[in-house]
Design a protein that fits this description.
The complex is a heterodimer of chains A (216) and B (329). Chain A has 216 residues and is mainly alpha-helical. Chain A has a single domain, classed as DhaL domain (Serine Threonine Protein Phosphatase 5, Tetratricopeptide repeat, Alpha Horseshoe). Helix content of chain A is 67%, strand content 0%. Chain A contains 10 helices and no strands. In chain A, helix 1 crosses helix 10. Chain B has 329 residues and is α/β, with parallel strands linked by helices. Chain B folds into 2 domains: 171 residues, Dihydroxyacetone kinase, domain 1 (Rossmann fold), CATH 3.40.50; 135 residues, 2-Layer Sandwich (Hypothetical Protein Tm841, Chain: A,domain 3). In chain B, strands 1-2-4-3-5-6 form a 6-stranded mixed β-sheet, with helices on both faces. Chain B starts with 10 loop residues before the first helix and ends with a strand. The chains are: A mainly alpha (216), B alpha/beta (329). At the A-B interface, helix 3, helix 5 and helix 6 of A face strand 4, helix 2 and helix 3 of B.
Chain lengths: 216, 329
């Protein structure tokens, strides 16, 4: 005799919170690598700034744990905007805040894609940047389009497509000169190097794909 | 290069505690959120706030006081302050007379000030300072960097606010000073951020970077170190070509040290710059030679020129009482 009990399912909020925690660990672990990329064409503190964001999110984890998904993202973004500084604080914070604003409480994958696109648009506006300026937008914009295109085909395939498009975006931007951010001042010397913001954006997308791409 | 540090992560906080204690007659420090405010504020006066990454001392906290800034918002070393810091500083010093933000042109500074001002409900105006003509790229897309010319803008706008000029007048004045000001720098070596394990700029011994930024950002040209007169001449020539001052217009000449160059060498550069400017029939009406916008321990200097007029000159000469700049009181 077995009694059928429902398998414990984790809520979308719990999964998002776990993903955020792992993301923070990966960003902390990548601090030196991102600083080195930034030193080549910027001022060498991108990894350090993202570590500040990761530590702040860790500090407010209990607060975030009580929030519905849209509010969770908005609050995480607002914590980053308020506390981190640098250029990455306003940019990543705005991305999360605007994504959260556009997200319904129980989003489908297609609704995630729409909200992510809104977040990317908000980030572009805040940073006054366009694709091809050699910024994090070169990774995030094609990734968000790929997620929208593949949203109907199952989560694993959609996230994999998103991540692949982001990676392609990073590679496409590599030979470019920077038009925004501090790397814009180095002129020709930026060509051939990866933008640190684009590299950290790809790290985030890869982590999310790895964590959430296997779950149905 | 060795440094006087405890935990490198605490460098900014510990330095500010020392600074605030040392200048307790002029400033007070808020630690959380972090900002430095003028101690004896004047009610009904336009408040002037500036800020940016730390490591450029005495900019900006060293210019808080009578006749200059009401608050300064220091970020981590070479990194923009956060929105909550800027907002807290603004709320602490501004009243109905309004707030003028003087912002150096870096994307992080622009975005954090912009986000803070979206949350600030008193009258406010922002002026972006972009005086550095040294960089090889970026002019078309991000504008020029804000560097030593910021001191000139903060001094003149601060004097106007102290004379109780209104917000619009202070902002217009700051904008016109910024537009009349250009700077170009040169580095003989790099500097190391306390939390980093290597310098921001790798220069071989005997090399110089012409057009250096104040965070070690590359300039326009790398070359063997030349005689001081030749270096001064290259900087002044570039500045005069850009500013194109008409003969007879008074100029402010500011030779700034980047942190690792002794005053003696700054005077050698200054003497060469004056000679070159006067040799072209132009008048150096005011001079300043000091390390005021530094880049940690970087050996190097910058030269700033401002096209002055009677109003700028009067406000420049007004009393100023701050930790970093003090005269006429």
């Amino acid at each position: 005799m077995t009694s059928a009990s429902p398998a414990p399912t984790r809520s979308a909020e719990a999964r998002a919170l776990d993903a955020l925690a792992t993301l923070c660990q990966r960003l902390l672990a990548a601090e030196d690598e991102l600083d080195a990329l930034d030193r080549a064409i910027g001022d060498g503190d991108h990894g350090h700034n993202l570590s500040r964001a990761a530590r702040r999110l860790d500090e407010v984890r209990d607060t975030l744990a009580n929030l519905a998904l849209p509010d969770l993202l908005r609050r995480a973004g607002s914590e980053i905007v308020m506390s981190v500084g640098g250029a990455s604080g306003p940019l990543y914070g705005t991305l999360l805040m605007e994504t959260g604003k556009a997200l319904p409480v129980a989003p489908s994958l297609a609704e995630w894609a729409t909200a992510f696109a809104a977040g990317v648009a908000g980030l572009a506006k805040r940073g006054r940047a366009a694709e091809g300026d050699k910024t994090m937008l070169d990774v995030l914009a094609p990734a968000s389009r790929a997620l929208a295109v593949h949203a109907g085909g199952g989560r694993a395939a959609a996230l994999a497509a998103m991540q692949a498009a982001g990676r392609q975006g990073l590679e496409d931007a590599r030979p470019l000169r920077a038009r925004r951010g501090r790397a814009a001042y180095v002129g020709e010397r930026a060509a051939g190097a990866d933008d640190p913001g684009a590299a950290s954006a790809l790290l985030c997308l890869s982590t999310i794909t790895e964590l959430l791409g296997g779950e149905s | 290069m060795s440094k006087f540090l405890n935990d490198p992560e605490d460098a900014v906080a510990e330095a500010l505690r020392g600074f605030a204690r040392c200048h307790a007659d002029l400033v007070q420090l808020s630690e959380q959120p972090r900002f430095v405010a003028r101690r004896n504020r004047v009610p009904g006066k336009v408040a002037i706030v500036s800020g940016g990454g730390s490591g450029h001392d005495p900019l900006h906290a060293g210019f808080v006081g009578r006749g200059m800034l009401d608050a300064a918002v220091p970020g981590e070393v070479f990194s923009s302050p956060s929105v909550e810091q800027i907002l807290a500083a603004a709320q602490s010093v501004a009243d109905d007379a309004g707030l003028l933000c003087l912002i150096k042109n870096y994307s992080g500074d622009i975005m954090n000030f912009e986000l803070a001002m979206e949350l600030f409900d008193l009258p406010h105006a922002e002026v972006v300072i972009e005086d550095d003509i040294g960089a090889a790229g970026g002019g078309e897309t991000v504008g020029r960097r804000g560097v030593a010319g910021t001191v000139v803008v903060e001094k003149i706008a601060g004097a106007a606010a102290e004379r109780m000029a209104g917000l619009t007048e202070c902002a217009d004045l700051a904008r016109s000073v910024a537009e009349a000001t250009r700077t170009m720098g040169v580095a003989l070596g790099g500097c190391r951020v306390p939390t980093a394990d290597r310098p921001n700029l790798e220069l071989a011994p005997g090399e110089m970077e012409i057009g250096i930024g104040i965070h070690g950002e590359p300039g326009r040209r790398r070359a063997p170190v030349a005689p001081a007169d030749d270096i001064a001449e290259e900087l002044v020539y570039a500045l005069l070509s850009d500013l194109a001052p008409p003969p007879g217009e008074p100029l402010l000449l500011f030779v700034n040290g980047l942190g690792g160059t002794p005053p003696m060498e700054l005077q050698i550069l200054y003497r060469a710059a004056v000679r070159m400017i006067e040799g072209r029939g132009l008048a150096v009406a005011r001079s300043l030679v000091a390390p005021l916008v530094t880049s940690l321990e970087m050996p190097g200097a910058s030269i700033t020129l401002t096209r002055m007029n009677d109003r700028f000159l009067q406000l420049w000469d007004d009393p100023v009482v701050t930790p970093g700049l003090r005269w006429g009181a």
